[in-house]
Design goal:
By secondary structure, this protein is mainly alpha-helical. The chain has one domain. Helices cover 78% and strands 0% of the residues. It contains 12 helices and no strands. Helix 3 (42-62) packs parallel to helix 8, helix 3 packs across helix 11 (191-204) and helix 11 packs across helix 12 (215-237).
Length: 243
């Protein structure tokens, strides 16, 4: 938390970029999106996608410090301590997820201004829970990518090649139901799709576009994604050659 707050450019980059995306794309495509017969404007539709982007940017960037800690020798000292590797992994994941959810909650306060209908307290609490699980999953994914790397440039390359396409093909920018069949197949195997669809289903309610899976099933896939990333990150950190 202290490291994050001391790096002003990181705070601005992780929070301002998704808001600019949401504002520019939302206002630019809002009228066109409504002419397609959708029950919700693009500002409201794109809101869960921008929220996922905030979680993605903050959670992923928080794991870059693993590369810096290895280069400075701090990580080796942590790994040599009696603390179990699972505690080290969970500490890193929960730290990154806390930062991501904190910024996401600030952005969530804007949602009543563009929401097609008041989602209700229960739905908003459910959306908060979905944000927490999504942030944990994305931080775990970032840790899996950052752990074996020695270069921050390589990490940024992986983000451009893997993480941003995951976000674009999650239904955040356009509904999965309107995508071509080949693209819809990719979206169906993208775990971030179900994180977005869970958030959209809770926040937009009946106005949400058709999802690939029912809301409870999407939520279950989201939880499975988070648990899988925690397991992979712990296994990766437990390998001797990762030191």
């Amino acid at each position: 938390m202290l490291r994050f707050l001391r790096q002003r450019s990181r705070v601005v980059g992780a929070f301002a970029t998704p808001i600019l995306f949401w504002a520019m794309l939302g206002f630019g495509a809002n009228d066109a999106f409504q002419t397609t017969g959708s029950e919700v404007g693009y500002l409201a539709y794109f809101f869960p996608g921008a929220l996922v982007m905030i979680l993605l940017f903050t959670a992923i960037f928080s794991t870059i410090s693993v590369i810096e800690d290895r280069r400075e020798g701090f990580l080796q000292g942590v790994l040599a301590s009696p603390a179990p590797r699972s505690a080290i992994v969970m500490g890193k994941i929960m730290g990154g997820a806390t930062l991501a959810v904190g910024q996401g909650m600030i952005f969530l306060c804007i949602f009543p201004l563009v929401a097609p209908q008041w989602p209700g307290v229960v739905a908003l609490l459910g959306a908060l829970g979905a944000m927490i699980v999504t942030a944990i999953a994305l931080t775990g994914l970032g840790l899996c990518l950052a752990w074996p790397m020695t270069s921050t440039a390589g990490f940024h390359a992986m983000m451009n090649v893997l993480l941003l396409p995951m976000w674009f093909l999650s239904g955040a920018v356009f509904p999965a139901a309107d995508a071509p069949n080949w693209m819809r197949a990719i979206m169906a195997v993208n775990p971030l799709t179900y994180c977005h669809q869970t958030l959209a289903g809770l926040m937009l309610g009946d106005a949400a576009p058709d999802a690939l899976l029912p809301l409870p099933v999407s939520a279950a896939v989201m939880v499975l994604f988070a648990l899988t990333m925690i397991g992979f990150a712990t296994k990766l950190a437990s390998r001797p050659q990762a030191v």
